Amino acid sequence: MSETENPDSQTATPPKYWRRYHNLPQNVLALSVVSLLNDTSSEIIYPLLPVFLSLTLGASPFVIGAIEGAAESAASLLKLAAGYISDHLGKRKFAVLAGYGISSITRPFLGLATNWTGVLFIRLADRVGKGIRGAPRDALLADAIPPEKRGMAFGFNRAMDHVGAVIGPLIAFLLLWFLASDHQNPTADEYSQVFLVASIPSILAVFVINFFVKESPKVQSSKSEVESPVEKMAKERFDGNFKRFLVVLALFTLSNSSDAFLLLRAQECGIATVYLPILWMFLHIVKVASSLVGGHLSDSIGRKQLIFAGWMLYGAVYCGFAFISTPVQAWVLFLIYGVYFGLTEGAEKALVADLVPAERRGAAYGWYHLAFGIAVFPASLMLGAIWKFFGFQAAFMTSAAISTLAAFLLLTVKTKRAEFHQMS
After folding, report:
1. Which residue among 13, 223, 367, 376 is the one 20 to 30 A from 278 at the CA level?
2. Does the predicted model carry a pTM greater than 0.90?
3. Phi and psi dihedrals of 357, rounded to 5?
4. Is-contact 27 211, C-beta < 8 A?
5. pLDDT in tens, 116-169
6. Rounded to whole angstroms, how far apart are CA atoms 82 and 101?
7. Which residues, other chains included, contact 165 with Cβ-Cβ below 8 Å and sequence gap of 6+?
8. Each residue of 233-268: pLDDT tens digit?
9. In this structure, CATH architecture of domain 28-213+238-423
């Protein structure tokens, strides 16, 4: 019996909004647990990495931008190939398992790095794992849920990802609080111990994938059965509307530099190193709540409207970072920044699935991540270079202007919102 067939059930069940999250498919739940565990691991490391590079290894903002930009670009470029291959083979689980496995192996080695070049190679290896798993994982999620609930599924997955990003910084804070002799500037050995602990939840994530994630049903045209992934990439055609979305996304990503710069600004505004994980944790608490709400809203009011609002908010936050000078101001902006993620992350991925046929979903997510990847490296280099030569205010204002322009160009992308209301 459906939830609408028994009016008496209204008193015995949660409100309608929360009932939408009941009875999610196993793959959505399992992959969301994987996201939680993996982000717990990565977010033990990430809020400390910019300060580790800057204060312990002596890296400049430009170098930090180069490291993070190169790492994220490597991940995004690999996602295109991984998406095509998963479509061609009709098998997505192995790529997801291999990708998370590579990341779980490489992360502990960050604690052994003695210079920024070592961090660069380790971050590249970690992001290679992300590149291998990203598009197949998103396709697994999209395959498991009907279109009218797709925003909810991606929103729930992102929320669990952010729950991990709440737990991870809390663990990092507690470890540093008890291990570090100087809370403002921990030693390399103290960082190493923290990074080693980060490998534990990522190993658990691999276990969950192996035993609880199921392969998607194979969805392919007969023609693709005889084509190699390279041939398919050469012949693949998406319509102009999807291509327009990718171009606009790439433009926005040019403003979306590494969050490492925001953490550096927070530290410059007076937030002690030991408290940076707590700042990062509260950012992700906001992401959890806003992702759950954002996933629901993208199904009800439309993906494009939500993404537009999120990108405009992003521009306002970056404008704010150009002028803050106190810890309180940094805290406020970080919390507002979390709302941007909830409005956009799930909605963007759900929109990709809306705009392409099911048999091209892996490839479409590959192109989605490629659009991000080709811009994220120059974005971080650009902000780092402008910061170095013209100051942080010019750097953050430039990013704010680009994101605002991209938000208005997004309005030219056509969506299929009406179809989902007819199906729901």
Report:
1. 376
2. no
3. -70, 160
4. no
5. 888 999 988 888 888 888 878 888 888 888 877 777 788 788 788 878 888 998
6. 15
7. 39, 40, 42, 43, 280, 281, 283, 284, 287
8. 444 567 788 889 999 999 999 998 888 899 989 988
9. Up-down Bundle (1.20)
